Amino acid sequence: MTTVSPPPIGPDIQAGRLPASEYARRFADATPPLNGSQALLESERCLYCFDAPCATACPTGIDVPSFIKRIADGNVRGAARTILDSNPLGGMCARVCPTENLCEAVCVRHTQEDRPIAIGRLQRYAVDALMQSKQPQVFTRAPETGKKVAVVGAGPAGLACAYTLARQGHTVVVYDARPKAGGLNEYGLASYKTPDNFAQAEVQWLLGIGGIEIRNGWKLESAAQLETLRHDFDAVFLGMGLSATARLGVPGEDQPGVQDAVDFIAALRQSEDLSTLPVGRRVIVIGGGMTAVDAAVQSKLLGAKVVHMVYRRGPDQMSASKAEQEWAQTNGVVLHQWLAPVEIIGHNGHASAVRFAEQTLLNGKLTPTGRDITWEADVVLKAIGQTLGNPVLSQAGFALQDGRIATDADGKTNIDGVWAGGDCRAGGLDLTVEAVEHGKRAAQAIHVKLSAA
Question: pTM of whole model > 0.90?
Answer without folding.
Answer: yes
